[in-house]
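We modelled the chain as a single entity of 306 amino acids. Its sequence is:
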Amino acid sequence: MKVMVTGGHGFLGKFVCAKLDETGYNVINPSHKELELMNTEEVERYLILHFPDAVVHLAAVCGGIGANRKHPAEFFYKNLIMDTQLMHTAWQCGVKKFVALGTVCSYPVNTPVPFKEEDIWNGYPEPTNAPYGLAKKMMMVQAQAYRVQYGFNAIFVIPTNLYGPGDNFDPESSHVIPAIIRKIQDAMGKGETKVSLWGTGGATRDFLYVDDAAEGICLALEEYNGLEPINLGSGKEISILDLVGKICQLMGYKGELVFDRTTPDGQPRRCLNIERAWTCLGWEPKVGLEDGLRDTIEYWRHRAKK
């Protein structure tokens, strides 16, 4: 099978492409320079030229809380246009299967924990992430509509917060784990005894190691053909305060942690129910948080030395 992966040069995409290669798929992995997903004509030409059997759509314009606050319109517009055009063109060009990657940000702000897939329409997302979350959720609506009307095999996968080696450590756009690791490493390098962090520390998150997420996506490509979305998460909830404590312990940092309560926490609680992934895919995460954090810290320390 020939599989086209969008965003294949990104954090998650590199792991997905590697797993598909290992499994024996013929992987097409266009860079942004090779394929502009906002350009419909370019997408159509590319699909006609390469004629993939399946598309795994990982590309997204996204970031952490700070980036979402700064670019809500951009995150909404670019994701909505890119996603909608790509799926429509894939259907027109005869692609047999489309794997659409959503986001945990699509869930309502006060979803009961753990989040079940059927709860995704029971309220409005957390306002900080809502434009991005809603744009991604429209891809689920499109997938379901195209399945009903056209018989198009489009599925929708919802990953939780991902982390691991190769993550984005840019202070302007990084998510929580790389942001914390970089802040602590910078403080240690400068001999600082205090680190300032966003929020109250009371919010909780569900963190999934990137290689586990890649395995789940590849299994969904092979095994899942359902109308309903499917969660990929660790199934475990940890507060930001406890997370920071683990990272400090692993990094050997003993300075003071100061939470800036004028900055937002984002969604109060976040943890995914992963029963459907186990039932439909036989998938469950393999890498525990402490081991995954250790790998991520080692990656950043090695990179920071260069």
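As a brief sanity check on the tokenised model: The first helix runs from residue 11 to 23. The radius of gyration is 19 Å.
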